Task: inverse folding
């Protein structure tokens, strides 16, 4: 019974905010495409310099000289929690709406640039490295960021309507409670993604790097 109730709540949520979800998803993938295009605009020297540092990092991964899994977990969790927290704060500030969209675009651009650079420099091997080092945690992180950005945009729009258009609607306090709870749930998924990035991705990366060296 509870499962069906949650499914109905989720279905209603996605239906009510479908236009925002569509906009946010398109914006994110525009960032991914832009990041991939930026790779091709780099000069030969810039690509060589970046690839040199990347090769150094691969050497450290292969020799197990990178940070411990616990340190990686803390770093990933802290980084993504800060990002999510900033989106949450911007959602409750009316002027933060455009910044949320910029942050999402930049997130997509970083993913697109990283994958694009690896593929550009290493062809199939680069794709394989992207698959094991970037994809696992981002299967969780990207949907969380898209949902978080959508919720923040929706909440910000409701505040704008409430403040400037003097529209009557749902009381803001219960909405704020649900908004805060949704971001607390997002942090749980961010922690799961950090666990994947810290404990699963490094061994996969190491095995791929050793196989292509």
Result:
């Amino acid at each position: 019974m509870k499962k069906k109730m949650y499914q109905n709540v989720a279905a209603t949520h996605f239906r009510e905010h479908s236009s925002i979800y569509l906009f946010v998803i398109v914006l994110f993938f525009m960032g991914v495409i832009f990041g991939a295009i930026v790779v091709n605009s780099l000069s030969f020297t810039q690509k060589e310099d970046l690839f040199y540092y990347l090769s150094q990092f691969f050497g450290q991964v292969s020799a197990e000289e990178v940070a411990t899994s616990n340190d990686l977990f803390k770093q990933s969790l802290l980084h993504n929690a800060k990002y999510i927290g900033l989106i949450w704060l911007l959602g409750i500030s009316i002027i933060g709406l455009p910044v949320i969209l910029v942050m999402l675009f930049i997130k997509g651009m970083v993913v697109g640039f990283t994958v694009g650079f690896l593929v550009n420099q290493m062809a199939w091997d680069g794709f394989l490295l992207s698959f094991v080092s970037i994809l696992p945690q981002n299967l969780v992180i990207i949907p969380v960021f898209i949902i978080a950005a959508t919720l923040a945009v929706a909440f910000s729009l409701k505040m704008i309507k409430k403040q400037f258009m003097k529209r009557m609607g749902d009381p803001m306090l219960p909405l704020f409670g649900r908004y805060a709870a949704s971001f607390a749930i997002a942090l749980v998924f961010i922690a799961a993604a950090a666990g994947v990035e810290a404990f699963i991705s490094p061994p996969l990366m190491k095995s791929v790097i050793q196989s292509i060296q």
Remarks:
- The first helix runs from residue 2 to 16.
- The mean pLDDT is 83.
- Helices lie at 2-16, 18-41, 44-62, 69-91, 97-133, 135-164, 172-199, 201-212.
- The two ends are 54 Å apart (CA to CA).
